[in-house]
Design a protein that fits this description.
The structure holds three protein chains of three kinds. Chain A is mostly helical. Chain A has one domain. Chain A contains 22 helices and no strands. Chain A has helices at 3-12, 17-35, 39-59, 68-75, 84-104, 113-132, 136-155, 161-192, 197-205, 217-233, 241-249, 252-273, 292-315, 320-345, 360-384, 400-403, 405-419, 425-438, 452-482, 500-517, 520-530, 541-547. By secondary structure, chain B is an all-alpha fold. In chain B, strands 1-2 form a two-stranded antiparallel ribbon. In chain B, β1 and β2 form a beta hairpin. Chain B is globular and about 80 Å long. Classes of the chains: A mainly alpha, B mainly alpha, C mainly alpha. Chains in contact: A-B, A-C.
Chain lengths: 548, 569, 130
């Protein structure tokens, strides 16, 4: 065995302590649940595990390398590469996990609770793995670690036909997408001879892709397949078909999970595989992404089609979960703007770049904002809904502002955030993404004669018009809550008691507002992370100069 | 921080605080809520007036001297900026979001373009509160909380000097008005609220793109990333002065102009984009109508003045002038005729808004100093007169629950004092000399006429259209007056209870506005003088754009001439 | 090509033993054991399904469970073969050095996971023939 690889594997272990911890606790949950049922007990254990994992993540100092040579070798061989972007994604995953645990607390009966929370922890562990994956194999395993427990989760809480349909639909399409992904991965491996992500990008792209304008056709096939496979996870059109049915069929917490976790995983995986996240070794800066113009064009089309389709289909929905499902499709489209732009701006911002903000950090910000507002909206529905009086349709919410002014205000907050109203997280997310689309500079020396910038401006305009279309259906929900009186003869919705799910709602609302008013809390970190700075121990001055 | 900076902050903070307090009081304690609202509106009016007085007495050194000799026209110089330092009194260091080299700042301030609009906003809050006293009985706390939030947003728009902060306030102002129309509005309130919201949202999303574009274009050319409006204006002007960058900037300006116009033209509203306005006005509760007509429409016009013209002067001249003045003139005539055809008084007033704002845009896009001042005056005047009209219509509606002109007749005998007020307001609205409307309208017409006469041998068709609009304004308003106030007495069904004339509360709502109308009519100088330096800044920007355009035309002309000669040979 | 047949002697030996054992296992019971023939005992799969008949026949869900358990544990144990092949080299230097290698501990984690799964299935009563 290659000693370098052994060493790098050894070095990878400390990086996955949080994931290992989560998996361990998941095992404890699975086993312990067979001895003692109880949702409060196992819910607290799961929550505690996530908190401890978060503490570990945030207290672990970044691994500093002795020299940039060592950093480089680790970068090109380690199965796990944890940069600050990965750490942020892990934080997103763990915080999201905590909120999801709270949200599911009372949705699940005592008997199923340990398995449910065990699966949830495994899913979150998988998401954390995805954040740090530096190898096709690790990445695939991480994605499967998310998918497989998800199938179980979809089956666990419910036994009706719709739930069965949802689970089966998700299962079949998910394995299909995994197959597509593997197909793409195999081509990438065949082209480059390595499974290391940086190695692949290095091999197929060379140091400078804008110079290497000839792209092998097989690479396009590979990228196409990878995007298709991950497109399922992020519900990009045309892989969005399952979303509405599955969200509607399953329980509200599961729908929230499906709207959040796979999307984060899919976007992180896309960013990693396509090499949109540069590394920065002080003197040396990472490569441009692969197959610049073709990939970017593919993502451009995907973004435009996804947001338009999602928004237009959402216009006709009367079921709240279906509406949120299509809205999540549309939001995937907005985030795809950031991906489509990435090849054009990350490459151009050298170490001395003036604008630190790129599109990759905009995606990260948007993921956080999107998570808070979407999980929040689902959480409100979960809080309101009860067995006697389910909240499924928009008309179930009529007059909510009279019977439940507080919770109506919170749902309105989430919806306004999804709409992109200022003072909420959603606005800054959209603003940063649109900003990145305008950041593409027209370069008359480029192959296309500088028309790229114009194309991205058009994409931003499509995005803006879509945001306005989206306004229509979010407003329908708000209008039902505020402008309509409760239907006569119907019992008003009971006020939700203080429960973990309500705490989840408050947490989401706090994040939405906090990021809306003080966006720099997250965006500064995201920008730093997107720089891809690798911590290298300070070199002697002469050596630094020599490297320059 | 100085006293003035505190004033600026509290102008925003006080209504916000009041909104939170009112919302948390609950719907049962209506009296307390109303009293708090009156107190807050009086206090913010006092603060705004104090700020205006202090601003008017300010020695604004250096603002007049710059442009005369230098090539650059100078830029806006906001005063009383919270978070400024002694070294740079016109900028702030309160950051909201930093993006590498530049940041989005919490950049508030006051200058000549905005100070009187702020006073107007504060002035209109009091009647809004008073007129809803008995009108709004359900969900009282929510109503007054939204009203206060609306106040925050509108004052915020005028105070902000950061382009994104401007957008934030601009956009958020939709939310309170959406709820005000949707909850307390007329029978078709839901449709009206949603149409209003989606319509304006569409425009403002595009506006956001325009703002981002101009910021990034500046960054690309000058490597300075800034969101501060004064700095952006300065950068754009210095770039335009350099002939080598003109091809780049002509594209950018075109895009920026179109995107910004998309949002602002809907907000103003210019003629083909006005369809949301009559609906929203008719369905809105009186306070909503007053706020909408009085201030919110000005936000659009103010956006043109503050952002669109200074950031895209060349395109404003080459495209904006013919296009927007054309639309505005069409709007003047169209609004007047449509208003005449209405039977619903509120709808009539709404269409008269379209007409009056058309005149305002006509003055502004004459791109002359007098036109710009006139349009700013017209904004203030329209806020006063139309605000008054909506108040009075609201009072009538509250008494009889109908607004149809055909239901009324001879009301002057029933409510003589009310009739006086209505006549006075209509006179102010049609621009009787000696009242406020006259000043703005005359200046707007001067502006557009001066522009048209500067083009040799052209008939001043736009000025004529504007004058026609004024005459038509008198026509439809007096027709309405005749129908409602005079002639044989015809009173709608009112279920027996006595119909009072003007109540003290209503006097308190109407009197301050009427007083200001008279004051402005007789002595507009203080206002004109305060806004002068900043209007001059914009005017200088446009006159430079004119110079550039004529230079270019000359250059093209000579090249064509040379070509002709070579062909002859 | 260097081909030494002697390398394969153990396999041949193993094969021969297998074949012999199988034959012996078929024949010896016939010779030694007592035989009481009943129709049920004559079926190809005692207490199982009759292989001849309608294909659309209901199976007991218990069989699926068994099949899945077999599949899971068998396939996962298959993973040990490639592991053994790559660990072989390391272990040739002695057991103590092997303890230092991560690959040894990795397989222990793997086995522990399997054990947890086994215990879980056990506790949930999967192995009970209900």
């Amino acid at each position: 065995m290659n000693p370098l690889t052994t060493e790098s594997i050894l070095h990878s272990f400390p990086l996955i302590i949080p994931e290992a911890l989560l998996c361990l606790v998941a095992c404890v949950l699975f086993l312990g649940g067979t001895f003692r049922p109880g949702r409060h007990l196992w819910g607290s254990v799961a929550f505690l595990a996530l908190v401890v994992a978060q503490i570990v993540v945030s207290t672990t100092p970044p691994r500093a390398f002795a020299s940039s040579e060592a950093a480089r070798s680790a970068l090109f061989s380690a199965p796990i590469w944890l940069d600050s972007y990965g750490v942020l994604i892990k934080t997103l995953a763990l915080v999201g996990g905590m909120i999801l645990v709270l949200l599911s607390w009372n949705e699940i009966d005592d008997h199923h609770a340990p398995e449910y929370h065990g699966c949830l922890l495994t899913i979150i562990a998988g998401l954390c793995f995805t954040a740090g994956a530096n190898d096709l194999v690790t990445l695939f395993l991480a994605l499967e670690l998310i998918s497989i427990p998800t199938y179980v989760l979809l089956y666990l809480p419910r036994v009706e036909a719709t739930a069965q349909e949802a689970a089966l639909k998700y299962f079949l399409l998910s394995i299909f997408s995994s197959a597509l992904l593997l197909f793409g991965f195999s081509y990438l491996y065949g082209l480059s001879g390595t499974t290391n992500l940086h190695g692949i990008i290095d091999a197929v792209a060379g140091q400078d892709l804008l110079e290497a304008r000839v792209v092998p056709g097989t690479l396009i096939v590979a990228v196409f397949m990878v995007v298709a496979g991950l497109g399922f996870k992020i519900t990009a059109v045309p892989f969005h078909y399952y979303a509405a049915d599955v969200y509607q069929g399953t329980t509200t917490p599961c729908a929230a999970l499906l709207a959040y976790v796979p999307k984060v995983a899919g976007f992180v995986a896309l960013v990693r595989v396509l090499g949109f996240l540069p590394y920065n070794l002080g003197a040396e800066r990472g490569f441009g992404p692969m197959a610049t113009s073709q990939v970017s064009m593919l993502l451009w089309i995907l973004a435009a089609v996804t947001m338009t389709t999602g928004n237009i289909l959402a216009l006709w929905q009367t079921n709240l979960k279906r509406l949120l499902a299509y809205s999540s499709v549309a939001h995937a489209g907005y985030m795809l703007i950031g991906l489509a732009v990435a090849p054009h701006i990350n490459f151009r911002t050298g170490p001395t770049a003036l604008i630190r903000a790129g599109s990759v950090d905009a995606i990260l910000f948007y993921l956080a904002a999107y998570g808070a507002m979407t999980i929040g909206a689902f959480a409100v529905l979960a809080c309101l809904s009860s067995r006697e009086r389910p909240v499924e349709e928009i008309k179930d919410l009529e007059g909510l502002s009279r019977s439940n002014p507080g919770i109506a205000l919170l749902l309105a907050l989430f919806l306004f955030s999804l709409l992109g109203m200022p003072l909420t997280a959603g606005f800054w997310g959209k603003a940063l993404l649109f900003l990145s689309a305008f950041m593409v500079e027209s370069d008359p020396t480029a192959l296309d004669g500088g028309s790229v910038a114009r194309w991205f401006r058009i994409l931003a305009i499509i995005g803006a018009i879509n945001a306005a279309i989206a306004g229509y259906y979010y407003l329908r929900v708000i209008a039902a809550m505020y402008l309509l009186e409760p239907r006569p003869g119907e019992k008003p919705l009971p006020r939700p008691k203080l429960s973990p799910a309500l705490v989840a709602v408050f947490a989401c609302a706090a994040i939405t507002l906090l990021l809306g008013v003080i966006p720099s809390l997250l965006s500064n970190r995201a920008q730093k992370a997107a720089e891809g700075k690798v911590p290298v121990a300070t070199l002697p001055v002469e050596q630094q100069q020599a490297e320059r | 921080m100085t006293f003035d900076q505190h004033l600026v902050l509290w102008l925003l903070g006080l209504p916000l605080l009041a909104a939170v307090v009112i919302a948390s009081l609950g719907p049962q304690r209506g009296i307390l809520i109303r009293r708090i609202s009156v107190g807050v509106s009086l206090l913010s009016l006092a603060m705004a007036l104090l700020l205006a007085v202090r601003f008017a007495n300010l020695e604004r050194a250096g603002l007049h001297d710059t442009g005369s000799t230098s090539v650059l026209p100078g830029t806006f110089a906001p005063e009383f900026v919270p978070g400024s330092t002694v070294a740079s009194p016109h900028s702030t260091n309160w950051t909201i979001l930093s993006l590498g080299p530049g940041s989005i700042h919490f950049y508030l301030g006051v200058d000549g373009l905005s100070i009187w609009l702020i006073v107007l906003t504060a002035l209109l809050l009091l009647p809004c509160v008073l007129v809803s006293w008995t009108h709004v009985t359900e969900r009282v706390n929510e109503f007054y909380a939204w009203l206060m939030i609306l106040q925050v947003c509108m004052i915020g728009v005028f105070l902000s000097f950061d382009i994104l902060l401007f957008y934030v306030f601009f956009e958020v102002s939709l939310v309170p008005l959406f709820f005000m129309i949707g909850i307390w509005g007329g029978p078709e309130r839901q449709y009206a609220a949603r149409k209003f919201f989606v319509y304006t949202l569409t425009g403002s999303m595009l506006t956001l793109l325009g703002m981002l574009w101009v910021v990034l274009a500046c960054h690309q050319q000058t490597k300075v990333l800034t969101f501060s409006i004064p700095q952006l204006v300065q950068l754009v002007q210095s770039q335009l002065a350099d002939p080598t960058t003109r091809p780049f900037w002509s594209t950018v300006q075109l895009g920026v102009f179109l995107l910004l116009t998309a949002g602002f033209a809907i907000k103003v509203p210019l003629m083909p984009f006005h369809t949301w306005l009559p609906l929203a006005h008719v369905e809105a509760p009186t306070a909503g109508s007053v706020a909408l007509a009085g201030v919110l429409l000005k936000v659009g016009a103010y956006g043109f003045l503050r952002l669109c013209i200074p950031l895209a002067p060349d395109v404003s001249l080459s495209l904006g002038l013919p296009l927007l003045t054309g639309l505005a003139a069409a709007g003047v005539i169209y609004g007047a005729f449509t208003a005449f055809a209405q039977d619903d008084i509120k709808r009539l007033v709404a269409y008269s808004s379209v007409s009056h704002l058309g005149l305002c845009m006509l003055g502004m896009f004459s791109l002359t100093a007098v036109g710009l001042s006139g349009s700013l005056m017209q904004m203030i005047n329209h806020g006063l007169s139309t605000g008054l009209l909506f108040l009075l219509v609201g009072m009538l509606y509250e008494r009889y629950h109908t607004r149809k002109i055909s239901d009324f007749g001879g009301m002057a005998t029933r409510m003589p004092l009310y009739a006086c007020c209505l006549v006075f307001t209509c006179l102010s609205s049609v621009g009787l000399p000696g009242l406020n409307g006259f000043v703005g309208e005359v200046m707007c017409i001067f502006g557009i006429a001066r522009h048209e006469w500067s083009i040799a041998g052209r008939f001043p068709i736009l000025a004529v259209a504007a004058c026609t609009g004024l005459i038509l304004g008198a026509w439809y308003l007096f027709t309405m007056l005749r129908g409602v106030l005079f002639g044989p007495v015809k009173e709608p069904e009112h279920h027996g209870h006595a119909i009072p004339d003007m109540l003290p509360r209503e006097w308190a709502a109407v009197a301050p506005l009427a007083l200001v109308c008279v004051l402005i009519g007789f002595y507009p100088q203080p206002i004109l003088r305060t806004m002068e330096p900043d209007v001059q800044t914009v005017a200088r920007i446009t006159s430079l754009a004119r110079t550039r355009a004529s230079e270019q035309a000359n250059a093209e002309g000579t090249s064509v001439a040379v070509q002709d000669e070579t062909e002859k040979r | 090509m260097d081909f030494a047949l002697s390398t394969y002697y153990p396999i041949f030996l193993f094969l021969a033993f297998l074949i012999l054992f199988a034959i012996a296992g078929t024949i010896v019971p016939h010779l030694v054991g007592p035989q009481r023939i009943t129709p049920v005992k004559q079926m190809p799969y005692e207490s199982g399904m009759d292989p001849i008949g309608d294909a659309r026949k209901r199976y007991d869900v218990k069989f699926y469970l068994i099949a899945i358990l077999f599949l899971v544990f068998d396939v996962e144990l298959l993973f040990l073969y490639p592991w053994a092949v790559s660990a072989y080299e390391l272990f040739s230097e002695g057991a103590l050095t092997a303890l230092k290698e991560p690959i040894f501990w990795e397989v222990l984690v793997f086995l522990a996971t399997l054990a947890v799964a086994y215990l879980y299935a056990w506790r949930r009563g999967v192995f009970k023939w209900r």
